[in-house]
Structure formats: C-alpha cells, structure tokens
Specification:
Layout: H1 2-55, H2 84-89, H3 98-119, H4 123-126, H5 130-133, H6 138-142, H7 144-147, H8 173-200, H9 205-226, H10 228-234, H11 239-259, H12 271-284, H13 286-295, H14 302-325, H15 342-366
C-alpha cells in the first residue's frame, strides 16, 4: 500500500511537470504567433493603403481611359474613375479641373447674389456691375450719343435706381420683370451645370457623358434666356416681334440640345462643331439687334446698351476662340496643366460676357417705356 502511494505521487509529480512544460512552451509560442499576426495585418493594411493611394492619385494623359482624353496638350494632374465622395472633396484639391470648377462656381454665386439683390430691391448690390465698369453720370446719359466711347470708365449712375418705381409686391411685377429673371436663372443654370460637370465627370464613363450633355444644355439655355430681356423690353409695343424672335431662338436652342444628345458629338473630335452651333445661335441675335437699333435710333440709352452687348458678344467670341484653338497649352504642352489653359480662359470670358449682358438688362429694365 505504501508502494502504491509512492507510485501515485511520482505519477502526479510527472504530470504536473509535463503540464508546466506545456504551459511554458505555449507561453513562449504565443508572442511569436501574435507578432506574426501583427506583421501580417500591418502588411495587409499597407497594401490596402497603397492600393487606395494609387486609386486616387492624379494621372497623366496617357494613363487616362479613352473617354477622358479630351485635350492632349494638358499632360498631367488628371482624376479618373474616382468615387463621388472623393470627386466632391477634390474641389479643395489642386488638379487640372480645379480652376474650371471654381471660375464658374464663383460666377454662379455672383449671379445668385445679384438675383437676391434684385428680388429684395437692394440697388447698390443689384448694380454690382458698376464696380467693374464705373458709374456713368446721369447728365451724360442724356447726351450719350455724343460723348460715349467703348473705353469710357463711367456707365450708369446708381442714384437713378431709386427712380425705378416697380415694387416686387405690385400686381404687374411678374409681367414686367419676368424676362429679366429668366435670364438670371438661365445664367445660374449654365454656370452651376458647368461646375458640376467639371467636378464629377471623373467618376465614370456613364456619368461623364450625362454631365457633358447637361453642360451643353446649360450653355444653350443661357444663350436662349439672354435674348429675353432685350427682345421683350425693346419690342414690348409690338408683341408679334417678341413672339417671332423669342420663338426663333427657342426653336434653335431646342434643336441644338437634341443634336448634342448624341454621345458621339460629346467627344473632342466635334469640339469645333459644338462651338459652331453655339456661335450660330449667338449670330441669330444680329437680326433683332439691327431691328432694335432702327426702332430705337433716337433713344438716349441706345449707345450704352449697345456697348454692353458688344462687350458681351466680344467676350463670348474670344472665349470660343480659346476653346476651339486650345491656346496657350498647344504652344507649350504641360506648362498650363494647372492654371492658364484654354478652358479656364474660356470660362472667365463666359462670366465676363454674362456680366456685360446683365448690365444691359438692368438698363432695359430701368428704362422700359409704356406704349
């Protein structure tokens, strides 16, 4: 019996030693396993980060998918196939579309502010155009045909705005002012759709095509709505001419939009064709413009409005020439990737032209006459 106890004690001590050794081996192997797992996780995380960095990196022209190859003279700083969230926040990042977005986004904000200023009847803000053009003395306005020149630094006297008695609460407000607001809305739609297009067109081929079509529609709408203030107010005593001219430009605009819905016409190959369509719509305005000059030959404000409209036409024409020719990047590829390339210059001239037309529209609105 004593021997049995000894055997049991020996066996128990052996088992205890074996269990202790196993625990020690387990403790020694666990840190190695944890270390290996940590290294493995870090490697995977590093691979994921590298993958994301590569995905959202700015690319060169040669790395772009075919649908984004629009201007071979802009060599770098492209975004391609970015998620919508990344595309949205890229508005605060430098790439070759940054200034394309901001030139028209700031233009949109400017016209939004002018619209609000006109609605709440704040003449100082509504005549914001005079900050750039100066103020034309009221005495000179009466004799404008004798002393006006395109280089004049004084155009419209802000004090005369108080003479405009139309109140937004008056019954005839909607019938007399709506053409002016049609133009403002058309301009805002054009500028906002352009900014949206340049910001999100890097997302996918499908969205790129849709946004380009919206951008072209915005340009067309802006051209159409620009006709409304001058034609409505100049020919308000001859309604049939209002109908003829406004219907004519509207039909041309609808045909232009339908034509540009073709995906093929959104490619770089048809850049000149698109420009020709828009220029032809603008040239249509020569007919009512000449007619208006004949009808209002003795109007003392004729030369002022003519100057504004000439500045508008010249701005749009110069901007279109930059758009088609792709100058200056054509001369020095890669030098104007971020700033100074043709499309950015085109955007600036579009805003300048719209502001010039706004100045003319303010005069039409102020000096409209009863029949």
């Amino acid at each position: 019996m004593h021997e049995n106890r000894m055997i049991n004690n020996i066996e128990g001590s052996v088992w205890k030693r074996m269990i202790k050794v196993m625990d020690q081996e387990k403790d020694q192997s666990t840190p190695e396993l944890v270390t290996e797992n940590s290294i493995s996780k870090k490697k995977k995380k590093k691979k994921i980060n590298c993958k994301n960095t590569k995905r959202y990196a700015l690319l060169s022209f040669n790395e772009l998918p075919d649908y984004m190859k629009d201007n071979e003279y802009i060599l770098n700083y492209y975004r391609a196939n970015w998620p919508l969230k990344e595309a949205f926040f890229s508005v605060f990042r430098w790439h070759n579309e940054t200034l394309n977005v901001w030139t028209h986004l700031l233009g949109f904000m400017l016209f939004l502010g002018l619209t609000v200023a006109n609605l709440v009847n704040v003449p100082q803000l509504a005549d914001f155009i005079t900050i750039f053009t100066g103020q034309f003395p009221s005495t000179a306005e009466a004799n404008v045909s004798n002393n006006f020149s395109l280089g004049s630094s004084k155009l419209i006297d802000l004090k005369q705005e108080s003479n405009l008695k139309t109140d937004i609460t008056s019954p005839d407000f909607a019938t007399t002012n709506w053409p002016f607001y049609v133009f403002l809305c058309g301009s805002m739609f054009c500028l906002f759709s352009s900014s949206t297009c340049h910001l999100f067109s890097c997302h996918s081929h499908h969205l790129n095509l849709q946004l380009l079509q919206m951008d072209y529609a915005g340009i067309t709408v802006m051209i159409i709505t620009s006709f409304f203030p001058p034609i409505y107010y100049i020919f308000q005593c001859t309604p049939h001419w209002q109908i003829v001219y406004l219907s004519g430009i509207s039909v041309m605009g609808i045909c232009t939009i339908i034509t540009l819905l073709s995906p093929a016409l959104s490619t770089a190959k048809y850049r000149s064709f698109r420009a020709l369509l828009f220029v032809s719509m603008g040239l249509f305005g020569l007919v009512p413009a000449i007619h208006a000059l004949v009808v209002n030959w003795d109007d003392p404000h004729r030369n002022v409005t003519l100057a504004y409209e000439s500045i508008m036409a010249l701005s749009y024409l110069i901007g279109t020439l930059f758009y088609v020719s792709r100058v200056p990047e054509r001369w020095m590829p890669g030098w104007f990737d971020l700033a100074g390339h043709s499309h950015q210059i085109f955007h600036v001239f579009v805003v300048m032209g719209a502001m010039a037309h706004y100045g003319a529209a303010r005069i039409f609105l102020r000096h409209r006459m009863a029949c």
